[in-house]
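so the lab meeting is tmrw and i was supposed to have these ready like two days ago... anyway. pasting both below. for each one the top line is the aa sequence and the line under it is the structure tokens. i havent really looked at them closely yet so no promises
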Amino acid sequence: MSIAFLGTSAFAVGVLKRLDPAPDLVVTRPDRPRGRGRRLASPPVADAARELGIELAQPDDVHTLDLSRFGDVVVCAFGALIKEPLLSHPGLINVHPSLLPRWRGAAPIERAIMAGDRETGVCIMRMVAALDAGPVCLRAAEPIADDDTFGTLSARLEPLAAGLLARWLAERPACIEQPEDGMTYAEKIGGADRALDAGSPPAVNARVVRALSPHIGAKAGELGVWAAVPAPDPVAPGEIAVSDGHVLWGCGGGALELLEVQPPGGRRMTAADYARGR
């Protein structure tokens, strides 16, 4: 059995490192400029492939590669559309971190937390031209805790995904067409999604913070927010109140207590450090 693994993100790294047998080839996106200095940096999967000693390819277009020699082609958080002729590869499967048809698309973990879902999961599915709409071969659910962040939830979904993938490679179960009923779309996180809403209740804003931590971060005006919990103290909507080392941001008739923040152009810090600076 020969396997090609297509992935890019940190979630894909978690699956790749647990994949047994290891793939013969890892394919990821090209290096891109990142950060304030715009220095060229590799995707997380590229670093993992080098660490594991697996052959690595980083083409501008995955469709320029001939993957027909591989019995299985596993796609996991790759971040680019798969087209023909690769789409017709008989061993092409996708690892998707949601309970399809809910949260098809680019940001299923973040959107599940933002929406207040009580559970999510992982599906192993065949790929079709429509985004994340293919038949589902295996699925497993995972509860979403009240304090889950993207980081804590994805950390549990990674081994769940790897286990399902290993089972699929060993058993090759039949796949069942997805229903359209209950379908939702998990759009990629954009700048507007990071902005906390002063008109929304504290619990809703707290879910946004948790969904975007620790990889993206939310924003209360110009202040970055990395951790927050609802607070009963009323504060004027959109205003920041600092008292006794506590930092409150007013929203929805109450407030968020900001626990970890990042001033514009500054570093991440605890609310207590921020309060002292104020």
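ok protien two:
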Amino acid sequence: MVAKGLNPPLDKGMALPPVTAWADFDALHDQPALWRDALAAIAARHSSGPVRQMTDGSALVALVGQQLAIKLYPPFLRDHFAFEQALLPRLHGRLNLPTPALLASGEHEGWPYLVMSQLPGQVLTHVWPALDETHKCQLLLQLGRLVAQVHALPVENMAALAPPWSDFFQQQRSRCHSRQLRTGLPARLLAQLDGFVQGPLPNGPMVILTGEYTPMNLLAQGGKLVGMYDFGDGLVGAREYDWLGPLCFLAAGYAERCAAFMDGYGAVLDDNLRLSLMRLLLLHRYSNLPAQIACPGWQDATDFQALAAGIWP
């Protein structure tokens, strides 16, 4: 239960270290003792329940009692905070799948934070390996329907909280080669990269993109999806960008799984779409093919057309 009345002053405890870039934030995330006091102080403003730090994922998160979750953003990700703060009430209660309710927001030592409701269920990452193929395809069908449902929502003021789609990809193209070199794209593909990513991208109606239809941000129970969370990486852009999470982490290399997701969404893969998806994957803000493609042997592809056909048969 959320505490009523005036919020008590925060007990600062150990100060948060200065964080100005992803490398700093990743290093901080890997040392929970450095952010334990901050989350405990925030939690005390909203509940008397016990605080449990969550070390999975990339954000600073704590569960408080059985009802609340706190997510703390570094100052350099204030735009991610603002997007999730606006999107949580937009999604809550409007989908066939539960999403967290936004209960409060604030700031601690210049770091913005959100207080949300907890959701039941197990993270899909832990559930997926035990499912048989029939259940995996059924879950992907359900996930495709969920993504389509989110994309049908009106964009409205969310566009003002995201970079313009064309500007976003202009920036991603300028960084693409160095990123793919750093993350280990095979040399034969790296040699073809610059020309390939200049090709056409999907350019349909702009929709709300959560960017997080991955097994790390979905909850399951009894072989079905029961919840979805984490929307700080959202954008407003072409719908295909949101297909990458399911089609890479859950369906890569399996024609039946790809078809199940696409059937749920109400779309069909063809060769041109596969190539567009391949460009989106290479230009994704977190592109890292060795970590994102659950498809053994993909590194042996001779070109991007062959790679796309192998990932999404």
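from a quick look at the 2nd one: The longest strand covers residues 102-108. Residues 133-151 form the longest helix (19 residues). will dig more after coffe
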